[in-house]
Structure formats: structure tokens, C-alpha cells
Design brief:
About 55% of the residues lie in helices and about 10% in strands. By secondary structure, it is an alpha+beta fold.
Length: about 675
């Protein structure tokens, strides 16, 4: 095996280290990443090889020990270092990452995004940032409501006599559910509840409610909490349920950066309430990057194993069996997934930049009015829709990559010790939290339809929807010009693929607008017309997101160093072409490619897989994950998979007497087949 993988590294077509620097952003980030990986590997507290054998209680306890260690680092080290550290930890121990992130990302993020400056200073002084005196959780989801935040049932009623809010769970379905940190850890909760003042509802707002006494850790009066127990994955996080029974909190514990409730009971609402939701996009943006990072690990394991695993030969006496990676069908299993991963890496980079620009724009608004606010709202809507579509399709894509890589390991992929079965269980929740993927996709589709309708009225198209220009000019009657090229090289050029995907996405949006208008023509309300067109909206969002991914991929290729451009170009072409083959019906329907041109694309996909196969292992090396991060004997850098796999399994499962041999196995083995005589019957006498 060692010699087999060494062969793969003899002649890469690109400088591996330069690609690592390009993917990470620059050399300094790579060096910081490597420093952090080494620190974690050498810290006994961060041992990960024995995770499969830990009980639920042991898993949670170890996570809490890590929190104690990392809390000081996170608040004392530069933000850049902390962000890099957390991106690595999200791959090493995703359950811990969640437990830690509930406080620093969700709870403290709610304070940063929705508290007034004075309130934020108050909670900072209380220890909300350093986790000294305050440990927070995020109370949005309820037993009966998840994606529909506006429909949450928990109520916060203002009592003008005492200047307090009364937080209450009126029904069983109002119980806060899936609240990370609630079962064991949190002292406070950012609770999303319906604001009720003077008998009038003002929508869902955020309130900080103390759950436990910070000295005794006893539950506060009116607060009931329970443990949700074992889950599909991420058992490091202590998810729980919370019920409030007329819990009183000071008026100042409602976060009032946007909506304000005065001592008199007057409610002052912001002119643009949707600005409050800008901070909620952060979680979706981070999951695009997390999808790329987790996919990199899965592909490293599968690709390296495929380069050392030998199976079958041509029958020549004494001939070595062939490597899995040399079989064209195995190349088709893994290498298009490699292209998808690079697409996610570059999309995450651009999405993060867009988000930072948005937040800077929102923070600079102040009391601005007019054009500045209009521009911010437009940017917010576009970023929200793009992040919604990317979060959905990148998490779906990553989950599929994990499972396809797991299956490519054969029977070994089913072992908890080879790294991908647990990765699947841990990652699956990404498709649900921070917005159910189907709901987010529909939100993206709604934005696409609404933007197209606005453009028909003369509003300018955003840059990432520029491909709709011809459709708008023609009044949403799209006439696609068939592509003229015939050869595999012509149909698979980046220019052709960009035009092809733009055509398909435009066609899908045109169809969604048509269905929406049909709903309106039937007399449906605007919201019901959107529901009427939900299937075509979802499809439009899917085609638009693939188009966005390809366009961003190409943009990054064009900016890349010259030495990297050939391999990145080939990966971008494979992403666009393979995805087109997978959705070939859309291209035929749009009229861009013919059946013969789709066949030419298939020829290109075959050729591209064969070419990229030569660089498959060097590409995973460029991801620059140490063996500690990979945490799989099958994905080792040196290829010594069988020895290390055997060592790991035997060390974690030493031979012991079977504990239930005498009570269960021996009686089974020693039982007799003699039947016991029944009672004597009178009729036989």
C-alpha cells in the first residue's frame, strides 16, 4: 500500500503547495492551520480515535472539558485565529463545534445582532462573551414550529404595572425543542417569542431569559427543562426542551436594537423590520464553508483508499491486482465529487465576502433613509436568497459526497472506525437546522420570481441574475439559440457551459413566473399563487444555484495563479459538464444542447475523469489535512491502511470473556429438543 500511494505523488501536474495556499487564502493561513492541527493532535484532551466507543455521558463530559479549555483561547486570541481554529474543529469534532457554537455563535450572535449598544455592554459585563457567569443557548425552535418563525407560540406579554415581560408557553407545542445547551449547560436563553403589548401582537422578538441560578444551578421559578437524549449524531451537544410558566423578566431583557418597548407601553417599530434578519444569515453562510471542509475530508479518505486498494486483475499470472482508482467507473464515482467540492470551496469564499459586505452596509446605516436604505434592503434580499439556496444545495451535496465516499470503501465503509459512517450521521442535521433545505430553496425560488417580476416593471437585475436580461426584454418569452458547437471540446468549454447553465436557469425561472401568473389568473392570493408555483420555484432555485456555483468557480479560475489554472479549469469543466449530463433533460427542454451534444458532453466527462485521475491524490494532498484531522486508517497519508486499521480495531476492542455466555449462550447451546409430556386426558383412559 505504501508503494501504491507513493506512485500517485510522483508527477503531479500542478504545484501542490501553491494550490494549498490558494485554497486557504494565503501562506500565513496555511501555516496557522497547520500549527492548530498540531496543537490539537498533541493535546490528550482532543483524542478522537476512540470516539466510536464512548457512551452518551462520556461524549458530553469530554465535550464540556474541551469547552473549559477553549473558552479562554477563543476570547483571548485574535479573531482570525479563532475562526481558523473553529473551521478545523468543525471537521475534527462537529458535535463539540456545535456545543461551543451555541453560546458564541447563536446566543452571543443574537446579542450582537439584536441588542442595543447599552444592552450589549450590559451582557458583556455580565460575562456573556467570556462565558464567565453566563452560558447561553438559543431558543427559537418549538415542538410545533420550526421554519415558520412568525408562527411561534411562546408569548412575552408586557406588564406595565411592574415594567416586566411575562414569558409563557401556553400549549404543549409552544415548548422550546431541540435547544442546544439547555439540558445541562445554559444559564440563559435568547428566547424567540410573540411580543404582546396592550392586547396587540407585534410579531416575534428576542428576549433574554435566565434559566438557572448561576450559583446553585437550580432552575429559576417557572422554568422547566428536560433532556432530549440520544440523537442521530452530534451527541456532544446536550439538546433539551424548555417550558416557561409565567416567567417574569425585566423589560430591558427584550433585545431592542430594532423594535423598542417604552416604559409607558409604547411600541416603536423600525421602519424596515427585515433589517433585523441580517444577522440570521451568518449560520447559513458558515454552513456553505463547512460543507466544503467536510467534503474535503471524505474525499481524502475515499481517494487515498482507492489508490491503495487493489481488486481483480487481467488474469496474467503474477500480475498485481488493479487499483480501484484505475477503474473508469470508480473515477466516475469520485472525481465529479471532487469537482463539486472545489465548487463549494469557491462559492463559500464569495458568499462569505458578500455577507461581510452586507453586514458592514447594515451597520453603517444608522438612521439613514432613502437611497442608502433601499440599496441595503436590496442587498439583504439578494444575500438572503443566495445564502438560502447555497446552504440547501451545498449541504445536500456534501451529505451525498459523504455517503458516496463511504460506499466506495466497500464493507469497510460501514465500520465506525473508518470515519465516514459517523460523519454522515453528524452532518445530516445540516440539511434541517438553520432552515429546512426545502423551505430555504422555496425562499430562494420566491426571490427569483419576485425579482423577475420587478425587472419586468423596469427594476435593474442583480449581477447574479444578469442571464435573465433577454427573457425580460421579451416579456418572459425565452427563445434560446441552440449551441452550434459539436465536438466534446466545444460543448465543454467554460464559455459554452456558462451559457448553457444560464439558459437552463433562465428557462426554469421563466416557467416559475408562468406558473405564478397562472395562479394569480385563477384568482389566488399572492401567497397562494406562490404556493401554487412551489414545484417550479424549487426547480428554478436548483438550476439557479448550480449556475451560481459554476459562475463563481469560473471567476475563481480566472483569478488563480497560472500554474494552477489548467487543473482548476479542468475541474470547473467537469463540474459544469457532469452536472449538465445529470440534468440533461433540462438542457434539451431549454433548447441549448441537442441530444448529440449531450453525448459529446459524456465523452468529455469520461476524458476529464481520466485526466484528473492522475492528479487525484495530489489534489487531496492540497486540502492539507493531517492524519489526525482525517481520523481514518483508510485515509492515511502514507497509505499504510491495513496495518493501522487492524491496530485501531484491536486496540479499542481487546479480547475479553463474553459477559453473557453463562446466562444466554450456554443455555442456548445446551438446550435439548425433548418435548415435555402433557397431562393425561380422560378420553384416553
Amino acid at each position: 500500500p505504501k508503494a501504491s500511494i507513493a506512485e500517485e505523488r510522483k508527477a503531479p501536474s500542478f504545484p501542490i503547495r501553491e494550490l494549498t495556499y490558494w485554497l486557504d487564502g494565503d501562506k500565513k493561513v496555511t501555516e496557522l492551520k497547520e500549527q492548530i492541527m498540531l496543537e490539537l493532535e498533541r493535546d490528550p484532551l482532543w483524542r478522537v480515535s476512540d470516539h466510536p466507543n464512548l457512551t452518551l455521558a462520556e461524549t458530553r463530559e469530554r465535550a464540556m472539558k474541551k469547552i473549559r479549555r477553549l473558552a479562554d483561547q477563543a476570547t483571548s486570541r485574535p479573531l482570525e485565529e479563532t475562526m481558523v481554529r473553529m473551521s478545523i474543529i468543525s471537521v475534527v469534532d462537529p458535535g463539540f463545534w456545535t456545543r461551543f457554537g451555541v453560546h458564541f455563535g447563536l446566543f452571543f450572535g443574537a446579542l450582537q445582532g439584536q441588542a442595543s449598544p447599552a444592552q450589549l455592554a450590559y451582557w458583556m459585563e455580565k460575562g456573556a462573551f467570556t462565558m464567565q457567569g453566563v452560558t447561553g443557548c438559543f431558543g427559537m425552535t418549538e415542538l410545533g414550529h420550526g421554519s415558520n418563525v412568525a408562527g411561534l407560540e411562546t408569548i412575552a406579554t408586557f406588564d406595565p404595572n411592574t415594567d416586566e415581560f411575562i414569558v409563557h408557553s401556553p400549549t404543549i407545542t409552544a415548548t422550546k425543542w431541540w435547544i442546544g445547551g439547555a439540558a445541562h449547560t445554559a444559564t440563559h436563553c435568547a428566547v424567540y417569542a410573540q411580543l404582546l403589548v396592550g392586547g396587540k401582537r407585534y410579531g416575534t422578538k428576542t428576549f433574554v431569559v435566565q434559566l438557572r441560578d448561576t450559583q446553585t444551578f437550580e432552575l429559576m421559578p417557572g422554568v422547566n427543562i428536560g433532556d432530549l437524549g440520544k440523537k442521530m449524531g452530534r451527541d456532544q451537544i446536550d439538546n433539551g426542551w424548555i417550558r416557561f410558566t409565567h416567567v417574569r423578566i425585566p423589560r430591558s431583557h427584550m433585545l431592542m436594537k430594532h423594535t423598542k418597548v417604552m416604559r409607558s407601553g409604547e411600541v416603536i417599530e423600525p421602519p424596515l423590520a427585515q433589517l433585523a434578519y441580517g444577522a440570521l444569515i451568518q449560520g447559513r453562510v458558515s454552513m456553505v464553508g463547512d460543507s466544503a471542509n467536510v467534503a474535503k475530508r471524505a474525499l481524502t479518505i475515499a481517494t487515498r483508499y482507492a489508490s491503495v486498494r487493489r481488486q481483480f486483475s487481467d488474469g496474467t499470472p503474477g500480475a498485481l491486482e488493479s487499483k480501484l482508482i484505475d477503474y473508469p467507473i470508480h473515477q466516475h464515482r469520485l472525481l465529479p465529487l471532487m469537482a463539486q467540492t472545489f465548487a463549494m470551496i469557491f462559492a463559500a469564499r464569495e458568499m462569505n465576502t458578500s455577507y461581510m459586505q452586507l453586514m458592514s452596509q447594515l451597520n453603517e446605516l444608522g438612521d439613514s433613509k432613502g437611497a442608502a436604505v433601499d440599496a441595503a434592503i436590496k442587498n439583504l434580499k439578494e444575500t438572503h436568497a443566495t445564502s438560502a439556496g447555497l446552504k440547501a444545495f451545498c449541504t445536500w451535496m456534501c451529505l451525498n459526497i459523504i455517503d458516496q465516499c463511504r460506499q466506495s470503501l466497500g464493507g469497510h465503509g460501514y465500520s465506525a472506525y473508518t470515519g465516514l459512517s459517523q460523519a454522515y450521521s453528524d452532518f445530516a442535521v445540516h440539511c434541517t437546522w438553520e432552515g429546512d433545505n426545502t423551505i430555504l430553496t422555496l425562499q430562494c425560488g420566491r426571490y427569483l420570481v419576485a425579482t423577475a417580476l420587478d425587472a419586468l416593471k423596469g427594476q435593474p437585475l442583480p449581477e447574479n441574475l444578469a442571464y435573465l436580461k433577454d427573457a425580460i426584454k421579451s416579456g418572459m418569452v425565452l427563445e434560446t439559440k441552440p449551441f452550434s458547437g459539436k465536438s466534446a471540446a466545444e460543448v465543454s468549454s467554460l464559455a459554452a457551459l456558462k451559457a448553457a447553465w444560464s439558459s437552463v436557469a433562465a428557462n426554469a425561472i421563466v416557467n416559475a413566473v408562468r406558473d405564478f401568473k397562472a395562479g394569480v389568473a385563477k384568482g389566488l392570493s399572492k401567497d397562494n399563487a406562490y404556493e401554487f408555483s412551489s414545484a417550479s420555484r424549487l426547480h428554478a432555485a436548483r438550476m439557479h444555484t448550480y449556475t451560481y456555483l459554476l459562475h463563481r468557480f469560473v471567476a475563481q479560475v480566472e483569478q488563480s495563479p497560472a500554474a494552477l489554472r489548467p487543473i482548476l479549469t479542468l475541474l470547473a469543466q467537469l463540474f459544469g459538464a457532469h452536472s449538465a449530463v445529470q440534468h440533461s433533460g433540462e438542457f434539451l427542454q431549454a433548447g441549448f444542447y441537442s441530444g448529440a451534444q449531450i453525448e459529446a458532453l459524456k465523452v468529455f466527462v469520461n476524458d476529464a475523469c481520466a485526466q484528473i485521475r492522475k492528479d487525484a491524490v495530489p489534489l487531496t494532498d492540497a486540502f492539507d489535512y493531517s492524519d489526525y484531522i482525517i481520523n481514518s486508517p483508510l485515509g492515511r497519508y502514507d497509505g499504510d491502511v491495513y496495518e493501522k486499521y487492524f491496530e485501531l480495531v484491536t486496540s479499542l476492542n481487546p479480547q475479553k470473556p463474553v459477559p453473557y455466555f453463562d446466562s444466554l449462550i450456554r443455555p442456548l447451546l445446551e438446550r435439548t429438543n425433548e418435548s415435555q409430556p402433557g397431562p393425561e386426558l380422560e378420553i384416553d383412559q
